[in-house]
Amino acid sequence: MDQDTAIAAFSALAHPTRIAVFRLLVRSAPQAVPALSIASRLDAKPSTLSGHLAILRRAGLIASTRHQREIRYEANLPSVNAMIGFLLSDCCGGQISHCQDILTMLGEETGA
């Protein structure tokens, strides 16, 4: 991920509703979540939520698919991985042993 793409992704997340949507979709991965379910779970107005979803989609953080009249959203996990890789690529001057706290946290999150 280049710097401009990373800035766009981080900017898209710089809003309480958008980061809540993103976190919900990451937790739900790899399952897609219907837009109305997202609105209900986050207690957000569907009309307002659609704008936030569009911003996240343009930043490449989420993807959408249409199933008849329903639109489902999912986290774009390769993009999420690229964003995390961008953040950590220079971490600790390449000394992975200095990143143990991060690795431990990721292991706890995934149950590893």
Automatic annotation (TrEMBL):
The record's annotation in Pfam families points to: HTH_20
Q: Which residues form the HTH arsR-type domain?
A: 1-95
Matching PROSITE patterns, A to Z?
A: HTH_ARSR_2 (PS50987)
Is Transcription given among the entry's keywords? yes
Gene3D superfamilies per record? Winged helix-like DNA-binding domain superfamily/Winged helix DNA-binding domain (1.10.10.10)
- Swiss-Prot/TrEMBL keywords: DNA-binding, Transcription, Transcription regulation
| GO molecular function terms noted in the UniProt entry | DNA binding; DNA-binding transcription factor activity
Query: Which NCBIfam families does the entry mention?
Result: HTH_metalloreg (NF033788)
Q: What is this protein called?
A: DNA-binding transcriptional regulator, ArsR family
Per the UniProt record, the source organism is: Sulfitobacter delicatus
